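Side project, low priority. Logging it here so it doesn't get lost.
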Amino acid sequence: MSKCGSERKNINIDSLNERVRKAGMKLTSQRSQLLQILLDHPEPLSADEIFKKFAVKSEGMDLVTIYRILKKFEEAALVSRLEFGDGVARFELTLESGHHHHHVICRSCQAIEPLHICDLDQHIKMVETMGYKQVSHRLDFFGLCSRCQ
């Protein structure tokens, strides 16, 4: 069973900035600020939500720039892109170790909460015995949160 909640707490902006450099990208203030926003908000954020959280709108910082940065970060496995069936792409930091988590989403208010357990090793092994390689998975739960019931 994988647990990544405590591992995420050990991430800091310096280690994220180093991952940008290791991925061969120039570390700009915009990229570092975007990483800090994702670090400060453990829930998945849309590009629009990220844009609204920028404290200072630097010159050249717009929604298009945020999408470009997110695309580069996704290609470098710094962030994961999540879609929950509502037409909105959301992004969250990817742990360097490869650990991940799942989510529960409220059908009414769209609140998203992480589930820091993953007990699917047996299922993954079964898929691998079927001849599949580089197996990954996603598991999302949907329901009504306590506030919306």
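Brief comment: The first strand starts at residue 45 and ends at 46.
Revisit when time allows.
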